[in-house]
Amino acid sequence: KGKKPLVVVTRKLPDNVELRMRELFDARLNTDDKPLTQAELAEAVKSADVLVPTITDQIDASVLSKAGEQLKLIANFGNGVDNIDVATAVQRGITVTNTPGVLTEDTADMTMALILAVPRRLVEGSHVLTSEKDWAGWSPTWMMGHRIWGKRLGIIGMGRIGQAVARRARAFGLQIHYHNRRKVAPKIEEELDATYWESLDQMLARMDIVSVNCPHTPATYHLLSARRLKLLRPQAYVVNTARGEVVDENALARMLESGDLAGAGLDVFEHEPAVNPKLVKLARQGKVVLLPHMGSATLEGRIDMGEKVIINIRTFMDGHRPPDRVLPSML
Ligand code: 8YV
């Protein structure tokens, strides 16, 4: 049906996703994978029919104000849409979509990996063998961590990912607790044997491990504030594979430093790619495990995300509502 849409993709995607995009669209791909500057983004939206951004692109009101009439769809390559001013986009008549579902299990795997790695000192142990010093050998008190089994896990955000974490954690013998805007369906609660806490404060005071699995929205910014972090017991661990902004990173680092928290496993940071130097220091001491935002980074997952993006674009171009449309009211 006439001209192919001009689809501007801001970052390098897996080869077969790019190949498919080239077949289907007039695809402008970013072959050198350097993130676009705000000025380059503003330039791109002047002519693009569809923009495919990622978390490293700030699609804010200023970029959107430069958009040409032809820009009708922003198909985010990613689940979280906190990189996009969705309200302004929608006001301007631009549809926004994301890629839910396909990265749930991978992100839950990484969350579980951190839940295991921090209390059981996985990275610290590995360093013993790779550092210059020789291993002095086993002893009964060597590398004692803390038991996972039987501990209380508090999940903040019981959406798809939170539930997938709960399923895994149950298999490891953890007791599942959660805080969410609303209680999940009784069937799911029963299946996960999960206890709902309407009050986040009350839940935090009783947990051994807390896992952040909610999106970053104005309502969840610094949900784990300095005040709330202080409610955690000094033996508690914090794991975050969601968004750095949900946790007051400075307050968290201070508490880890002072021993008011036992440890943390962080895959996301408040000011990526910058990481609080205090956290890096604590990681060197083995108190925290830090990962560079790789929770959903599997080849299979990235291909699935690319396919989702393509389906959203094609459905939209065919004149239908794309399956993963995001509305401001959902945030
Ligand atoms: C990506 C993610 O790292 O989808 C998300 O919300 O955090 C990850 O899949 C990134 O956001 C892709 O844009």
UniProtKB/TrEMBL annotation:
One Pfam family, short name: 2-Hacid_dh
Keywords: NAD, Oxidoreductase
Domain D-isomer specific 2-hydroxyacid dehydrogenase catalytic: start-end pairs: 20-326
GO CC field: cytosol
Gene Ontology MF, one: glyoxylate reductase (NADPH) activity
Gene3D superfamilies: NAD(P)-binding Rossmann-like Domain
Domain (D-isomer specific 2-hydroxyacid dehydrogenase NAD-binding) ranges: 112-295
Similarity-based family: Belongs to the D-isomer specific 2-hydroxyacid dehydrogenase family.
PANTHER family, alphabetized: 2-HYDROXYACID DEHYDROGENASE-RELATED, GLYOXYLATE_HYDROXYPYRUVATE REDUCTASE B
Record protein name field: D-glycerate dehydrogenase
